[in-house]
Amino acid sequence: xxxxxxxxxxxxxxxxxxxxxxxxPGEVLLDIKAAGLCHSDVGAMTDAGWMALIDFTPxxxxxxxxxxxxxxxxxxxxxxxxxxVGVCPTAGHGAPGYxxxxxxxxxxxxxxxxxxxxxxxxxxxxxxxxxDAGMTSYHAxxxxxxxxxxxxxxxxxxxxxxxxxxxxxxxxxxxxxVAEVNEDVWPLAEKIGAASVVKSVEEWAGRDxxxxxxxxxxxxxxxxxxxxxxxxxRVVQVGMGRLETTLDIRDVILKEAQLWGSMGGTKEDIAAIxxxxxxxxxxxxxxxxxxxxxxEGLEKLHRGEIxxxxxxxxxx
Length: 316
Known about the structure:
The chain is of the alpha/beta class. The chain has 2 domains: 180 residues, Alpha-Beta Complex (Quinone Oxidoreductase, Chain A, domain 1); 116 residues, NAD(P)-binding Rossmann-like Domain (Rossmann fold, 3-Layer(aba) Sandwich). Strands 3, 5, 6, 7, 8, 15 and 16 form a 7-stranded mixed sheet that branches. Belongs to the zinc-containing alcohol dehydrogenase family. This is Alcohol dehydrogenase.
């Protein structure tokens, strides 16, 4: 079957023929219906530092996967043939596209413990998106941030993650404020129910926000967030736009600030975001391509030409 192989840093994806996989004990075979394209895929292709996370090459990339169970291995009891599911990339049985072959192909073997049932009405494209972008966004604001009704919350960045996180905050009853440098997407802030939108986090200085979730992570956003929270407020760091920053330690100490990191999430986070996507409470901006368009789609992500998330429709 066809697959897009990754072989090394700054090497293009190569269309290859690979054997059709067979599920082992505790595993299932999926016909892939949709696979998300992520900025971390671009990072793995362009930054040699990511190679330490990849167990072997060539490897099929793609860690956002949704499909239909077509075969079950020995001992499988939690799912059955015909089930519509998403694959949690952080559930503990090896991340697709890193520790095992991922979703930029036609079929995928996954452990039954990594699967999340899709609710009725949820498209495969949204289900694929929800396995990483949705999970990560939700986990940061709802679990690490502990967002609650009445809280004053800042969301930095209204891209693929921030648009989901901000909407989750609104749905949880918080007063959500957005900082987004790209004014072209400001109307989206109003659409999702944000109370206000500014160009820079620096405009929040002295606002005494309870919680700020930084989905951008460009260094100055992190330091600016610490100046905008209240005494004992919390900053949750998700974005990795820059891997180093300088902080004013006075803000950390005098405010007794909480600076928390957030990475990925859980099956429970995916299930929660699936319900919000299926109900229409969250309608993220997304672009759909096809299997053949995966390499070009990753190039567009690299050039910053995609608003929201990008998903490949693999099959009907």
